[in-house]
Amino acid sequence: MRIKNNIPIHGFVAPGFELVKEEFIKNFTSRGEVGAAFSVYINDEPVVDLWGGYRDRKTRAEWEEDTLVQVFSASKGFAALALSLAHSRGNIDYDATVCTYWPEFAQNGKEKITVRQLLAHQAGLSALDRLNIENLEDLDTSRLSQSIAASKPDWEVGKFHAYHAWTIGTLIAELIRRTDPKHRTLKDFFKEEIAEPLNAEFYIGLPAEISEERITTIEGINHPIQLLKGMTKLPPKMLLNFLNSKSLVARSLVDPKKFVANNNFNHRPILSIEFPSGNGVGQVRGMAKIYGAFASRAKILGLSSLTLNELSMGATPPKEGFYDHVNCIDIAYSLGFWKHFSNMQFGRSESSFGHPGAGGSFCFADPDEGLGYAYAMNKHGFGMANEPRELALRHALYSCL
């Protein structure tokens, strides 16, 4: 179908989910959407599968059924899902020390850090400025993991947490490689153990054979007025810390070389390396299907009840509480995921787990409903969580259940 200004909208919603389609259309007519997709699986069956708008605004190339989209930090959730399978198979214990599996990690006072603390962003390894990132390829797990292993924590482990924006994916990927009996990289483990069994297209490290014509063109916020309006949505303390290059916020988020600038993700080099903190690319339908399979404990994955129980447990805060010293707001972290908490409520209860991405993408599992959820777009909003377009869809979905 075509809506206002001849914008194309495709897909379906199951009976009872008509409100979701209405809100998806409103995103284009009222909320400035350019191109997006939204998908929901319940008990491993699709109930929402919508896509529309333009993959590339300038060329007017339409968002197709098989379009792939970059989801930035939502990639971290898929890395954490892979690690949960390693846990399910007895390859890793969340309460063991990281150096049990990765001996080099014990350098500079890190020998007592547990896997659980690491995945909860408590390890003090969020800063970029001492990681020898001189070339884009230095962000690949094979290189970045060595720099992280040699680094010293910036705070007493377990005292507080701070978002490991560009390092947590590498930490997870190295744990996968160290504990997998076949010593596969994360991108190969994910492909062979999750994506292929589920016939779901999602990549951490884009294969060379994937045509660029299938990939969206990401739009950041470039207009000065839009930028100023967006900045007002950030926590004031976070804005102030951005101005201080020595602050933990700046050291954890600001990349002096601009390798992680939005526009770089429109080009092959950064999409091709293994950088699970931020370069995941896939079909939104596939993302929802993957999270849905974890939410429903689909037999094909071999996810144990013990692991699903771990994923479903509420987050335990560090000593100083839920305040995140990088994002400068309260966030609940557990096992590599964000959890249902205060201003970030998703799913029916704190059993839900997932991860948002820069600009507004969001993917999560709701075990209470056996539900997998995924939304992604190519026009970025400001910030990461509770982007208005995504939030409208989330509220509409749960009003239909």
UniProtKB/TrEMBL annotation:
Residue ranges of every copy of the Beta-lactamase-related domain listed in the record: 29-388
Domain of life: Bacteria
InterPro entries reported for this sequence: Beta-lactam-related, Beta-lactam/transpept-like, Beta-lactamase/esterase
Database matches in Pfam families: Beta-lactamase
Protein name per Swiss-Prot or TrEMBL: Beta-lactamase
